[in-house]
Amino acid sequence: EAQVTQNPRYLITVTGKKLTVTCSQNMNHEYMSWYRQDPGLGLRQIYYSMNVEVTDKGDVPEGYKVSRKEKRNFPLILESPSPNQTSLYFCASSLSFPLRYNEQFFGPGTRLTVL
Amino acid sequence: GENVEQHPSTLSVQEGDSAVIKCTYSDSASNYFPWYKQELGKGPQLIIDIRSNVGEKKDQRIAVTLNKTAKHFSLHITETQPEDSAVYFCAASRSTDAGGTSYGKLTFGQGTILTVHP
After folding, report:
1. For B47-101, what is each residue's pLDDT tens digit?
2. A65: distance to nearest CA of chain B, Å?
3. Of A58, A99, A108, the CB nearest to B32
4. Which residue in A33, A42, A59 is closest to B111 by CB distance?
5. CB-based burial, B4-20: b 16+ in 10 Å, e otherwise
């Protein structure tokens, strides 16, 4: 089944403890992206990647890191999480870019709480 | 950068009525406007999109209109059903940045919670 998977789905952690949220797609997609969803703010793009070893900042990249060493994986790293990073995170992928010609598929989300 | 405003934040309708959600955008270079539906506990899913070279697109009960001059676009759902109840997001994107480099940013609106009462 073609899909985007994220792990973990739920995570409660404490301030300053490094964590990684994994994202993987099995559709051979070039483009991958991370978003956070907060009430009243919609989804905001954190980072995106147009291909292996190519990453760019979205609108809210502060406090996050990403890497794209393989085409299928795009992990989101929080080196020192803070409570304001408590959010619902979504990974997404599309075959290529620009997005106007390539549908974006979303993962199921990761609910992160930072105490 | 792009800024997308979406209204209303909540919308309640009776089954069979129409629902309209409106979005405005700020970047005149934006040329792609998707709409996503998010059901409870799931990720957003594309339901319809429109590109800047057309003014309207329809897919069964769902339609999207685009006014490039006014920089706004709208989602229209006719003959609403309870299963249409969800959060709807509009978004905007451009193909290249000001320097002509391929562009991967997508800016979302704040979302609309649509409730369809049986």
Report:
1. 999 988 889 999 999 999 999 999 999 999 999 999 999 999 999 998 777 777 7
2. 17
3. A99
4. A42
5. bebeeeebebeeeeebb
